[in-house]
């Protein structure tokens, strides 16, 4: 159990650091109201989860440690769906209904397409 906890923690730490760096770089070059950093991380995270699930599903037993490190840890630390919800709540509170609708719609549809694409490419 300790090994699994360490794998998830290591992957989560790396994912969280990469998520932070993505946010810093995106904010440096993007000043629009649309939360581009979270959007990009969520779509890329969905793509990576699809790709990893597809790649590691052929022999789940042999790849359990990789699944914990990469899917549970890294992708869990990298993606930011709770931030997504919080940002949408803020947009709605500030009456930016169109921006919120665009953000919600493109995130959900783009995420589903990205997971499908990742799974398709992994085959």
The major β-sheet equals: none
Radius of gyration: 16 Å
Proportion of residues in extended strands: under 5%
User: What value does the average pLDDT take?
Assistant: 92
What's the end-to-end separation, in Å?
A: 31 Å
Keywords: Cell inner membrane, Cell membrane, Ion channel, Ion transport, Membrane, Metal-binding, Sodium, Transmembrane, Transmembrane helix, Transport
Function: Fluoride-specific ion channel. Important for reducing fluoride concentration in the cell, thus reducing its toxicity.
Organism: Albibacterium profundi
Transmembrane segments: 5-21, 33-54, 66-84, 96-119
What does this entry look like structurally?
Belongs to the fluoride channel Fluc/FEX (TC 1.A.43) family. Na(+) binds at residues 76, 79. It is a multi-pass membrane protein. It comes from Albibacterium profundi. It is found in: Cell membrane. The protein has one domain (2-25, 35-122). The chain is mainly α. The chain is globular, with a radius of gyration of 16 Å. The chain is built from 5 helices and no strands. Helices cover 84% and strands 0% of the residues. The model has no long low-confidence stretch (mean pLDDT 92).
């Amino acid at each position: 159990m300790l090994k699994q906890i360490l794998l998830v923690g290591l992957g989560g730490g790396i994912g969280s650091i990469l998520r932070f760096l993505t946010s810093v770089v995106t904010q440096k070059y993007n000043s629009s109201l649309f939360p581009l950093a979270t959007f990009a991380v969520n779509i890329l995270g969905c793509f990576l989860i699809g790709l990893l699930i597809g790649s590691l599903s052929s022999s789940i037993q042999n790849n359990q440690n990789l699944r914990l490190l990469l899917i549970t840890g890294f992708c869990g630390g990298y993606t930011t769906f709770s931030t997504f919800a919080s940002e949408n709540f803020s947009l709605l509170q500030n009456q930016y209904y169109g921006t919120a609708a665009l953000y919600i719609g493109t995130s959900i549809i783009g995420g589903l397409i990205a997971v499908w694409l990742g799974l398709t490419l992994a085959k």
